[in-house]
Structures are given as C-alpha cells and as structure tokens.
C-alpha cells in the first residue's frame, strides 16, 4: 500500500514533469514609455537558453491570441513552436484587453515601438538566447515588422504571414478587387468605386471633422441610391457609421501611406514570407513576389517565399474562401504551415541543420 507521503511526492513529480513537457507559462508586463503591454511568454523546458519569437497581430485591436471569429491562431502557433524548442512571446495590443494605452490613436510606428519594446524585454529574459530572437507578423503585423526589423540590427529572423509587401494604396486597391471579385459585376463596381473615393478623401483631408463630413455625405448618398440593395438589411446610420469608424482612424491613413521599399534596405536578417493562395485580403502572388524582389534588390539574399494552395488569409483550408467562413471552418491554422514555419526557424537558429 502506497503511503500518503510517497503518493504526494509521486503526484508532485508527475505534475512537475507534465509542466516541463508543456513549457513554462509566464505572464509578463512590458514597459514602453507611458504604456504597459501585457503578455504571455512560454519557454520550453531545459537548461540551455533557447531561441524565441515575438508574435505581432494584424489590423484591428487584438488580444494576445489574435482572436478572430472565435479562432485563436496565436495561441496555436505559440504552443506548437514551444513544444518544438522555440520560446514564444505574445501580447495584447495597446489599449486592448490587459494592455494600457489607446489603440484608436496609434499608427504603424507606434505599434512598431511596441514590438521593439517586446524585443528589448525578451533580450534580458532568463532562459532566452538574446542572439536568436525573431518576430512573426500576421497581415498588418508584418508591416509593423518591416519598420521594427529595419531599426533592429540584432534581430535574428523575420516571418511574414500574409503580410503586404507593396505600398498601402496599391495593396488597398488589390484588396477591393479580391473581396468583391465574386459579386455581380455591377454591384462589385459600385463597392470598388466607394472604396476608391473614400481612400481619396482620407488622403486629401487633414481636418478630421471635414473628412468625417465628406465620408458621411458620400456614403449616405450611396445608401440612398438603392444600388446596393441594403434597405431592410442595415439602417443608413449603421451603414455610414461603419465606414466612418473604419476610415477616420489615423492608423488607416498611415497604412495607405506605408511604403515597404523605405525599409527593405535596412532589413538584414533572414526573412520568410508565406501566403495562402486563396487570401482575399493580401494578394498571394503579387505580395510574395514583392517580398522577394524588394529585399534581394537591396542586398538581402536570405529570403524565402512560400505559397500554400487552398488556404485563406488565416491559413485555413477553405471552401468558399470568403471572409464569412473564418469562424465556420474547423481548422484554426493548417498544420502544414505550422510545420514549415517551425522548420525554417529551426534552421535559422541552429536547432536544425540546413
């Protein structure tokens, strides 16, 4: 019969072994000037310092898991990489969940400063190899990563997941074409024209009050025209507010004015850019080509690009491949993509021979 003390010791050792197998979870606070980012760091078990990656979320205020349509892709990525020897730091966007600050007033350089603060924090963290820390940005997170990577000479590697590599205006136009390509021709044209006009308003106006007024009047007229057939589906006020909310943020104008070519010459670390070929937010072929040509033209020969057939913007194997099925698909992120990214990082950091 097992004595009580022996049983307690057995349970304690079993729990410790299980925790070591899963890795150590640690809630962290990351200071950046007048704000504090709240995040989670997972470090694999072991005695030696390990490589690490910082996850940077895409557009919109996201928590540390980049929760989208009920899916938690950053949680899946973090646990997958940690089980294979790579520490992962992910954090709530400023002004979101437990992080302080204001998301609405922030622009790309502000978010890049947040990523830089996370990098500086991680370099001092016990158990992390300071020479093998990289970043992984999804969608807009890769644009943020471009700015951060261009200013950080000690960055170990950079992974772009569905990240734009073209200037913001061209990217926005391509996105409109992709989003509306399956609509009836007349309806698609109306929506593309609306987007084109609104982008022009945002670029032209420096006065927020005037810009809001122009958007309000223009979008209201589109609703009243009846061409979109929205009567009974959404009120005019809801329709107009939706557009104003999306376009009045300083961050949106900053996105349109973002030019990756200004940063490519200063990105010296290895870069991996991956895309799903069914992505309706970021054109797969055009942007992967832009990553490759943009970086190699400025002297970075360590650039890898990879297109994944049949995957959407979230790297799910999709059916209709529209934005409306993100939450309906059973998959959070394709295992094929997870394995490819992990193996690439392992090669860059010496966990695996090339």
TrEMBL record:
Hydrolase found in the keyword field: yes
Keywords, in A-Z order: Hydrolase, Signal
Cleavable signal peptide: 1-19
Domain Xaa-Pro dipeptidyl-peptidase-like, first and last residues per copy: 37-163
Pfam families: Peptidase_S15
UniProt key word Metal-binding: no
Cited InterPro entries: AB_hydrolase_Est10, AB_hydrolase_fold, Xaa-Pro-like_dom
Domain of life: Bacteria
Recorded GO MF terms: carboxylic ester hydrolase activity
PANTHER family recorded: ESTERASE ESTD (PTHR43265:SF1)
Protein name as catalogued: Alpha/beta hydrolase
